[in-house]
Write a structure and sequence with these properties.
- The protein is of the alpha+beta class.
- The chain contains six helices and 14 strands.
- Strands 5, 6, 7, 9, 10 and 11 form a six-stranded antiparallel β-sheet that branches. A four-stranded antiparallel β-sheet has the order 8-12-13-14. A two-stranded parallel ribbon has the order 1-2.
- Strand 13 and strand 14 form a beta hairpin.
- The protein starts with 5 loop residues before the first helix and ends with a helix.
Length: 291
């Protein structure tokens, strides 16, 4: 199995960090930390790299402050699994005033898509299952975003950036938000869903890098997150879909994310005005990879 696209990027960033620093402390609470210790030992790097197994919030580093924090904390839809909380904690406790965050900025983007075939295959199925109406399950299925690859040809609107986080200043409370969006259509088409993705910026490297999970960029294991509309509609080129997207941690499970999106579009005989609730949870991720 090939490593995800982020692996060479982070390897390059880590190499850049390694060249600048006298010592690197690596923290991970997973079993991979044990293998990392063996790799460090086999390559005789104990004097330069220390592996610490444990939760960031529950341990004490062997230094008071650090020059650089590098972490692959991004989840599906950027915020799934709530890993940014830990990075913010580490930044506030250990990063020097002139220290560097990698990545140092992340943005979240949205676009509308046409996706009639997949929507029918995935959700229309429940209208008649062996002559039995299971429409009630269809409503539940529509509330679960799908993490999947979106073909760029399906995108029928311009892109809107609805979140921009500065990793030097962002606070945990900023991760729950409600922001407006506006999508201008590039062609006459049917809107079946909106899709979201993130871009991560590594501007402090010797050679700055942008890791994009856009449908217009190379595929990553993050893919895109698709939110299907309960009521698809016909859109006209040049007209706009507006609304807001509200995101917060789910109370049911700390890793899950609750999302509320409002949809407003009015042109000629088409009048769209509704709000839809979604929940991004682990089972959603699993099912989208199995389809």
């Amino acid at each position: 199995r090939r490593p995800p696209r982020s692996t060479p990027l982070y390897s390059s960033a880590a190499s850049d960090v390694y060249k600048r620093q006298k010592h690197v402390d690596c923290i991970d609470n997973a079993e991979i930390a044990d293998f990392a210790k063996e790799i460090i030992k086999e390559n005789k790097l104990q004097d330069r790299v220390t592996i610490i197994k444990g939760k960031m919030e529950e341990l004490t580093l062997p230094v008071d402050k650090v020059d650089i924090i590098i972490s692959e904390w991004m989840g599906y839809f950027l915020l799934f699994e709530s890993m940014l909380d830990t990075v913010i904690y580490a930044r506030d406790k250990y990063l020097k005033p002139d220290g560097i965050m990698l990545p140092d900025r992340v943005t979240m983007c949205m676009a509308a898509i046409e996706d009639a075939k997949y929507k029918q295959d995935k959700f229309g199925f429940w209208d008649k299952v062996y002559d039995i109406d299971m429409g009630c399950i269809k409503k539940i299925a529509l509330s679960e975003p799908l993490v999947d690859l979106v073909e760029k040809k399906l995108v029928n609107s311009h892109i809107c950036t609805f979140l921009d986080l500065n990793l030097y200043t962002v606070k945990v409370e900023n991760l729950c938000f409600a922001n407006k969006y506006e999508l201008k259509f590039r062609r006459n088409d049917t809107v079946h869903a909106v899709t979201c993705w993130f871009d991560a910026y590594f501007s402090k490297l010797s050679h700055p890098i942008v890791l994009s999970t856009s449908p217009f960029s190379k595929t990553t294991h993050w893919r895109q997150t698709v939110f299907y509309l309960d009521k698809p509609f016909k859109a006209t080129m040049g007209q706009k879909l507006t609304g807001s997207i509200a995101v917060k941690k789910a109370t049911s499970h700390f890793r899950d994310v609750d999302i509320k999106i409002s949809y407003h579009y009015k042109h000629e005989e088409v009048d769209v005005n509704f709000t839809q609730m979604y929940k991004l949870r682990q089972v959603t991720i699993f099912h989208s990879f199995q389809t």
